[in-house]
Amino acid sequence: MTDLREVTALITCEGRDLGSIGPFPVESPWWSDVEPVVDHCRAMLGVNVAVTRLVDVTGGRSPRDGHVVYHVEALRRPAVVLPSATFAGVHQPARHRASWATPHGVRDALAWASGHLATDAPILDIAEQVKTWNLSALFRVPVPGADPVWLKLTPPFAAHEPSVTELVASVDAGLVPEILATDATHRRALLKHVPGQDSWDAGAELIRTVVERWVGAQAALAAGPPPDPAVIPHRLPRDLPDGLATLLDGETGAMLDPDERTAARTLLARLPGLIDALDDCGLPATLVHGDFHPGNWRTAPRSTVLIDFADAYWGHPAFDCERLREFVGPDRGPAVADAWSRAWRQARPGSRPERALRLTRPLQAISGAIGYQRFLDHIEDSERRYHELDPPQGVRDAIAALRDLDRQSD
What we know:
Blueprint (H helix, E strand, L loop, with lengths): L4 E9 L2 E11 L8 H11 L3 E10 L7 E9 L28 H12 L8 H4 L1 E6 L2 E8 L2 E8 L7 H9 L9 E5 L4 E5 L4 E2 L5 H19 L17 H9 L2 H4 L3 H22 L6 E3 L8 E4 L2 E4 L6 E3 L2 H11 L4 H15 L5 H25 L12 H20 L1
Parallel strand pairs: 1-4
Antiparallel strand pairs: 1-2, 3-4, 5-6, 6-7, 7-9, 8-9, 10-12, 11-14, 12-13
Helix pairs in contact: 5-10, 6-8, 6-11, 8-11, 8-12, 9-10, 9-11, 11-12
């Protein structure tokens, strides 16, 4: 697979179709990474731009590579004349289109940010878009003489990230970014810059430190009242059987072969017993990050901050550990399991976190499959290519994890 994405940008400005730029190559292969697309178009046009959405992809494999067509809004009228292009379907409304995936939505979000920030230049001219896809849009806003501020937009079906951040801050303020402003109605937030680097290659010592701190926060939150499920979703293990049954009766079941469907029905029948066994391990319901991996840890010499809580929910803490262990792979996985188990034994004497972690593997895979189907049910058709193969793969992973669990029990 080549690490090359080729891009064509269809350029509009305030309701006018201006033409196209490209095809041109960008080094980053990831479809949602639009910063290099913005940089290229800005240089060609002489004005700031924003990618509203992905229009089409030819070739590649989700979520990367291939020839990607984007709708790009010029935020000022450029002086250059562009080659003509076909805009068929670009302006056609779509059910479940994200608020930021239209020219009006992008401009409205930047206008909201402008009302909360004092900058020397209009935010429309200086905001630097970093990412956009069906789950979020992210802009970096330069601030003269200071660190940048981040504008993040999220969909209605995600957790309300500022509320999650405030909840974590109530027990460990230094563990989360500072929220500067929020608009709950339109799912917007301005976040203070977090110094440091994303910790993709975190070693065992950093893993231990972060896991222990996160477990401490989770244990403290578990001692208080659960949050409002209308603000932070509740997704407990006991909900998984209904969720899996719905998957198997829908498009996910249709994508499995007969043997896989039979195995999935067997898994469904065994879920209540697995969930009862998990409950017996003595760990409490608490806040689950939902995407707990080192790429969502910002590490500086004297601090580590967790970011990106849009997938957060109230559920079982072992799901975060399994997500992290799966992400870092077999080399660092034992460090994850050891640090997490020791931290929970200390936080909850008499609990059995090691057993909980073994039982969680098939449950985590099912939870992931249900989550991906949730995305598919709430995003526009052109964005489904990001996730449409993930629910059936999650079911397959759960079947394999159950078989591994059975072998360990023999």
